[in-house]
Specification:
heterodimer; A: mainly alpha; Four Helix Bundle (Hemerythrin (Met), subunit A); elongated; B: Cytochrome C Oxidase, Chain A; 2 domains; two-stranded antiparallel ribbon; 18 helices; 64% helix
Chain lengths: 194, 629
């Protein structure tokens, strides 16, 4: 009988959709795994090292994205506790920090090109990989910001709590994942910078 | 408590029906932007068939060039314009034809057309779900595929013609827009199309995996799923893991093409001018490409395997032989497919030790493949075989898989591959083992599930004609190519018979071309049968093949949500055919064991002690009655 009750709820069951997000994260993980493997094959095969000291801007962007994960966690907790004002506030903070991350990454590109002379079209493609990593990651960040805006928009329209939590969870999975991926990419670059 | 729950359920259904009636379907929401998995399956199938016909016509065009390198056909100029000046296909266009034929067949027909059709149709229907996890994403998946098809075909309408570097688009040809005519706009369109295609594929695959894992009906545990579902599920996992890697490779390629980076480019001299690229590695692209490319061939063949298993079991009226072994070998193929990509690269100057590793992993794939083959043969053995067209195509699939698979053992050998690499031996191998075999699996599926898709039956006689002409035609086309390859004839050459040493193959080329034309004409029988049967075919009954799986318990008329009322519950595995003691030679998955006391066996109750006790009681009373008699 439990099972048939469960089936009644199927129409509202958002679990499979959430599961979709988890699988999407797998695909995204494979994409970055492929890029970094490409880097290893490239630099290992041709003996081209990176020889770039990473600009300190990356430290600040890392701080921004870690903080944004924290505020998103707080927003999630607030949403669970039905404290919607607080939820909005933390969502806004997350959004600001996300945009800050975006801006700092762009600034890091500026430092790389104008200050350090490391160009995207460097004959040593190890260096082009810095832009490939950060650029494709930023495209993901744009998608995550759109997702965040959608969730924020929902909180202003007073959608049912089930939908609200669903949106929060979808956004959280993706957002935290992008934070982890950025840390992975940054550590990868730091380990290979010599 | 229990009545309450049942009552609840009824109410829920009222709700649902009420909702359906309110929701007026327009032409657009029903046939175009449909979110119903059954309609999306049909959309995939019809688009896939259209693409297949186009790719087949392309192949006939380049076969004409191969058979008659010296003759002129003014008609070709009329049809193709500057692609075929003076009645002969131009060298560049020949390469475009080969490239686009390969691309369309591998990706658009045998990936999207095959998985897209049958995963969409069968996953919800065979596991007992009302629709996919995300119907909206499912719809997007089709429309991205459609757009990708349009963009790919549009490359025939640009001045310099479509991409022509081969379906594997190796740099530097693909990375330098000026390398050859096909590297220009044609290549750009190819890349745009493939990006959309991958998006479509991923959206589909994510949905398939999520649906199988989350939305099975009551009683449908993983080990009660039909092999079609297992195959489509594992195929989707392969796609999810492999396609992103292709995207990564293509992104870097686009950077090289349009942004001036040198990921893949080094030491290039173009028209006598030294190019600024240095330090790149074209081998890197091959690694990234084949990390997708090899799983891709299993993405192509595994659904065909699943479909054939199901069709052969139903039409042999026997349980599939070695169900668990079939599943484990599918899983084995899935895992192994990710560690064999290097066998496409034996001649790239790879470290011989690494070549040896890839050789061993490649040859290990022969084990699960052989397990599957023997299981199919053992399923046929002493079966009560009904030779429906679907059954013939399924058997044909096994035939091609064997004859094409055997040559894989030669090619997987790093030493032998030095001779055979890029010869017609390779062409023969993959056209049999993944081309013909996968197409036959797909056709078996079309003939078998046509009644489910359209509620009509296809004409059997035309089906037989289609099968025999195609089966014989495919062997006549591809078998002689083995010998050409052993003689060293290279693939993708425009007119290799101009070489004195290869002139003798001209007669064989002519023969192959005529066999190909025959096989192509045979497809007219199929297309005619397919289209006419949709409108004027005999009405199908609910379960025309007397099959056990869930989709045949759904009504013939398609409804949103698949089943009116409750979704059926599953009690047994899908292969109870010709079970001794049963009244009929099939017991659908929805029949509980309590209704089939006479055919129950002790092993049906391995994890069900109460059921086993009932069975023992039943058999002991039977024995007691017999004693009384």
């Amino acid at each position: 009988m439990m099972a048939s009750i469960q089936k009644n709820n199927d129409r509202l069951d958002l679990a499979p959709k959430k599961f979709n997000m988890w699988i999407f994260i797998f695909t995204s993980f494979m994409f970055f795994a492929a890029l970094t493997s490409g880097f290893i094959v490239y630099s290992g095969g041709k003996g081209h090292g990176l020889n770039v000291i990473m600009p300190s801007a990356f430290m600040y962007s890392t701080a921004a994205i870690i903080l944004s994960s924290g505020t998103l966690l707080l927003a999630n907790r607030a949403a669970k506790g039905l404290r919607f004002g607080e939820q909005k506030l933390y969502l806004w903070l997350t959004l600001v920090l996300g945009l800050a991350f975006f801006a700092i990454q762009i600034y890091a590109w500026y430092v790389l090109t104008y200050k350090m002379g490391i160009y995207f079209t460097d004959p040593n493609a190890s260096r082009s990989f810095i832009y490939a990593f950060t650029g494709t990651h930023l495209i993901h960040i744009i998608a995550a910001i759109l997702l965040l805006l959608n969730t924020l928009w929902g909180t202003y329209r007073n959608i049912p709590q089930v939908r609200n939590m669903f949106k929060m969870e979808m956004t959280s999975i993706f957002w935290h994942f992008l934070g982890i991926i950025w840390i992975y990419l940054y550590v990868f670059l730091l380990l290979n910078q010599n | 408590m229990s009545t309450l729950a049942v009552h609840d359920h009824g109410v829920a259904h009222h709700d649902e029906h009420g909702h359906e009636h309110h929701h007026n379907e327009t032409f657009v929401s029903k046939y175009i932007f449909s979110m119903d998995h059954k309609m999306i399956a049909k959309q995939f199938l019809i688009t896939g068939i259209t693409m297949a016909v186009i790719a087949m016509i392309l192949s006939i065009l380049f076969r004409i060039q191969l058979a008659y390198p010296d003759k002129t056909f003014p008609l070709l100029t009329t049809l193709l314009g500057h692609f075929a000046p003076n009645g002969r296909i131009s060298t560049e266009f020949y390469l475009s034809l080969v490239t686009i034929h390969g691309t369309i067949m591998v990706f658009f027909v045998l990936t999207a057309g095959l998985s897209g059709t049958f995963a969409n149709l069968l996953i919800p229907l065979q596991i007992g779900a009302r629709d996919m996890a995300s119907p909206f994403m499912n719809m997007l998946s089709y429309w991205f595929f459609f757009l990708a098809s349009v963009v790919m075909l549009s490359s025939f309408f640009v001045q310099k013609g479509p991409a022509s570097g081969g379906w594997t688009i190796y740099p530097p040809l693909s990375a330098l827009p000026k390398a050859m005519p096909g590297s220009g706009e044609g290549m750009t369109l190819w890349l745009i199309s493939m990006v959309m295609f991958v998006a479509s594929s991923l959206m589909g695959g994510i949905n398939y995996v999520s649906t199988v894992l989350n939305m099975r009906t009551k009683g449908m545990d993983l080990w009660k799923m039909p092999l079609t579902i297992w195959a489509l599920f594992l195929t989707a996992i392969l796609g999810i893991l492999a396609f992103p890697v292709l995207v990564a490779g293509v992104v870097l390629l686009i950077f090289d093409r349009s942004f001036g980076t040198s990921f893949y480019l080094s030491d290039i001299v173009l028209n006598g001018v030294q190019q600024p690229y240095e330090g790149g590695s074209p081998i890197l692209f091959q690694h990234l490409f084949w990390f997708l490319g090899h799983p891709e061939v299993y993405i192509v063949i595994m659904p065909a395997m699943g479909i054939s298993s199901e069709v052969m079991s139903v039409n042999s009226r026997k349980p599939i032989f070695g169900y668990h072994a079939m599943v484990y070998s599918l899983i084995g193929i899935t895992v192994l497919s990710f560690i064999v990509w290097g066998h496409h690269m034996f001649v790239t100057g790879m470290n011989p030790f690494l070549g040896g590793v890839f050789m061993i992993t490649t040859l290990i794939i022969a084990v699960p493949s052989a397990v599957k083959t023997f299981n199919w043969l053992a399923t046929l053995w002493r079966g009560n075989i009904r030779f429906t067209p679907a059954m013939l195509f399924a058997i044909g699939m096994v035939s091609f898989f064997i004859s094409g698979g055997l040559t894989g053992i030669f090619l997987g050998n790093a030493a032998l591959d030095i001779n055979l690499h890029d010869t017609y031996f390779v062409v023969a191998h993959f056209h049999l083992v993944m081309g013909s075999a996968a197409i036959f699996g797909m056709l078996a599926g079309v003939y078998h599930w046509f009644p489910k898709m359209f509620g009509k039956l296809m004409d059997e006689k035309l089906g037989y004609l289609h099968f025999w002409l195609t089966f014989i035609g495919a062997y006549l086309v591809f078998f002689p190519m083995h010998f050409m390859g052993l003689d060293g004839v290279p693939r993708r050459y425009y007119a290799f018979t101009e070489f004195a040493s290869m002139q003798k193959w001209l007669t064989i080329n002519t023969f192959i071309t005529w066999a190909a034309i025959m096989a192509a004409l045979a497809q007219v029988a199929f297309i005619y049968n397919f289209i006419v049967s949709i409108f004027a075919g005999k009405k199908s009954t609910q379960n025309p093949w007397e099959s056990n799986t869930l989709e045949w318990t759904a009504p013939v008329e398609h409804i949103h949500g698949n089943w009116p009322g409750e979704i059926p519950t599953v009690y047994r595995w899908p292969y109870d055919y010709s079970k001794p003691g049963a009244e009929e030679d099939f017991i659908p998955q929805t029949v509980p064991f309590s209704q089939t006391m006479s055919s129950n066996l002790p092993h049906d109750f391995e994890d069900n002690p109460a059921g086993l006790e009932e069975l023992n009681k039943y058999t002991s009373t039977l024995k007691a009655e017999e004693k009384v008699k």
